[in-house]
Design brief:
- A four-stranded antiparallel sheet has the order 1-2-3-7, covered by helices on one side. It has a three-stranded antiparallel sheet with strand order 4-6-5, with no helix packed on it.
- Helix content is about 40%, strand content about 20%.
- The chain contains eight helices and seven strands.
- The protein has about 230 residues and is α+β, with helices and mostly antiparallel strands.
- It folds into three domains: about 1-60 and about 100-155, Ubiquitin Conjugating Enzyme, CATH 3.10.110; about 60-95, no CATH class; about 160-225, no CATH class.
- Keywords: ATP-binding, Nucleotide-binding, Transferase, Ubl conjugation pathway.
Length: about 230
């Protein structure tokens, strides 16, 4: 089962240090400590700087359907759930913190170890290197560190990894563009470029696609738009 007392304590400690770390974890729904939303700031000196990235967090609980139930061991917790007027019984064992939290980016990000489509993260401590001694905050700090130090030889997104290895400057530009477009409260930098190019007579959809393809480089986007 999920150790909710520990989760509550972790949330309090993490949010208490928010002004220093910039990392926050909150329940995603009312009184639901099994589904959380974390936020991490983009590391300084990276194309993610200035962005705030949201991480979807699900805390696992192994659920074994048992019917009928004759004996409930002291090691288990009986959980009742009502679905379609049927009372279902579950025995919940293990779960967080004995199993790693399931984390994925809810904010779109351009990074070799993060899926640009699903937000899935390739990070060992979220898999076989997890330990119950680790916390949600340490996991989020590790994800933040991954933004600073990509590992393109062990990618989650092969397309991004190839760009990182073959055309690093374009990778930096694209990662920065995605940060401005998706991870900043105000994306005026991107919108100003879009508006400027649209005012030149180019269709907005084409402008946005071209800017994304060239990593937000306005001059290169204009060159490509003029050549089409």
């Amino acid at each position: 089962m999920v150790d909710f007392a520990r989760v509550q304590k972790e949330l309090q400690e993490c949010n208490r240090d928010f002004q220093v770390s910039g990392i926050k974890v909150m329940p995603k729904g009312e009184a639901n400590l099994a589904h959380l939303l974390g936020t991490i700031p983009g590391p300084i000196g990276t194309p993610y700087e200035g962005g705030t990235f949201k991480i979807d967090i699900t805390l696992p609980a192994v659920k074994l359907p048992v019917f009928p139930i004759y004996v409930v061991s002291e090691c288990y917790q009986l959980v009742f759930s009502w679905t379609k007027e049927l009372l279902t019984f579950f025995l919940c064992a293990d779960g967080y913190p004995f199993e790693p939290p399931k984390m994925k980016f809810a904010t779109k990000v351009w990074h070799p170890n993060i899926s640009s489509q699903s937000g899935a993260i390739c990070l060992d401590i979220l898999k076989d290197q997890w330990s119950p001694a680790l916390t949600l905050k340490t996991a989020l700090l590790s994800i933040q560190a991954l933004l600073s130090a990509p590992e393109p030889d062990d990618p989650q997104d092969a397309v991004v990894a190839q760009q990182y290895l073959r055309d690093y400057q374009t990778f930096l530009g694209t990662a920065r563009y995605w940060t401005e477009a998706f991870a900043m409260t105000s994306s005026l930098g991107v919108e100003e470029k879009v508006q400027k190019l649209v005012e030149m007579g180019f269709p907005e959809d084409l402008v946005r696609t071209t800017l994304e393809n060239v990593g937000g480089d306005e001059n290169l986007a204009l060159e490509k738009l003029c050549s089409t």
